[in-house]
Amino acid sequence: DDILYLETRDRLLHYHTATDTWSVRGSLLKAEKDLAAYHFARCNQCYLVNLQYVKAVENDFVHVNTDRLEISRRQRAAFLTAVASYIGGVL
Predict the structure, then answer these.
(1) pTM across the whole model
(2) What region does 46 belong to: left with phi over 0, alpha with psi -120 to 50, or beta?
(3) In angstroms, rounded to a whole number, what is the distance separating the alpha carbons of residues 49 and 38?
(4) FRET partner for 57 with CA separation of 20 to 30 A, picked from 21, 64, 77, 90?
């Protein structure tokens, strides 16, 4: 519930929270499968975003907390659909 987003970089999986970042060896694909039930969606090959913390989507970027993450062309349609479904379900 505290995870804002996950990032894969330098062969590590970085978990970003509001207060800290911690890193483990792991696969973003496995994390995506493990977190699918918790409203996480991939915005590009490097990021898995907790939809609960999406503040805005602007052009090719998603704003999560104070970070701005790029949305890839390949993931754009699926990510925007996931955001819309989440917002529709929450409201």
Answers:
(1) 0.91
(2) alpha
(3) 10
(4) 21
